[in-house]
């Protein structure tokens, strides 16, 4: 477990992030889940910028969707999108290089959901598209860690 902002988080074996000390079903919070996801992506971009990683993070757009479901990836993103992509509680993002000929193609992507009733964030899909021998790529070996940063940022935004 790690202690973040006085709230305990634990990563469960099913790739779920469960937290305590936060009322997940509070109706008086000011932000809805879509706003929290947007704020989490902004916070994640600020973190990447501060770490001098030349990566852009943003929601998965139509072009990214077409690439992810075209056989570009190893995971079955079309199944993931059909299962989770239309849910109101989804949190998804894509990472791309800031410059270069591949800047329009996803370098990595993640698809998560948040269950307000149980207070559980589930990480359904995480994939890096960086080649195994491309150690100079800024995302090389970092996709899962960056996904956790984004998810933790989301839970902190829920707590405020």
Helix content range = 25-40%
β-strand percent reads: 25-35%
Structural class: alpha+beta
Count the strands? Answer: 7
Q: What's the overall average pLDDT, rounded?
A: 80
Principal-axes shape call: globular
Rg measurement, Å: 16 Å
N-end to C-end Cα span: 20 Å
Sheet bearing the most strands, described?
7 strands, antiparallel
Q: Would you list the SSEs in sequence order as H and E?
A: EEEHEHHEEEH
How many individual helices? Answer: 4
Strand order of the largest sheet: 1-2-3-7-6-5-4
Stretches where pLDDT falls below 50 for ≥5 residues? Answer: 1-27
Structure description:
The longest helix is centred in the first third of the chain and has 18 residues, at 33-50. Helix content is 32%, strand content 26%. The chain has a seven-stranded antiparallel β-sheet with strand order 1-2-3-7-6-5-4, with helices on both faces. It has four helices and seven strands. β6 and β7 (120-128) form a beta hairpin. The protein has helices spanning 33-50, 62-68, 77-85, 143-159; strands at 2-4, 7-12, 16-19, 55-58, 90-97, 108-115, 120-128. The chain is of the alpha+beta class and 160 residues long.
């Amino acid at each position: 477990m790690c202690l973040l902002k006085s709230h305990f988080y634990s990563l469960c074996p099913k790739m779920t992030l469960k937290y305590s000390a936060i009322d997940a079903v509070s109706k008086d919070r000011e932000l809805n889940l879509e706003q929290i996801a947007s704020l989490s992506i902004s916070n994640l971009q600020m973190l990447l910028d501060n770490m001098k990683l030349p990566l852009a993070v943003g929601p998965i757009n139509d072009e990214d969707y077409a690439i992810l479901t075209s056989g570009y990836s190893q995971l079955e993103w079309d199944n993931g999108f059909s299962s989770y992509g239309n849910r109101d509680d989804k949190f998804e993002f894509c990472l791309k290089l800031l410059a270069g000929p591949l800047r329009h193609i996803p370098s990595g992507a993640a698809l998560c959901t948040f269950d307000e009733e149980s207070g559980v964030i589930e990480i359904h899909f995480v994939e890096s598209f960086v080649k195994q021998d491309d150690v100079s790529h800024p995302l090389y070996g970092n996709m899962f860690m960056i996904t956790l940063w984004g998810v933790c940022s989301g839970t902190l935004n829920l707590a405020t």
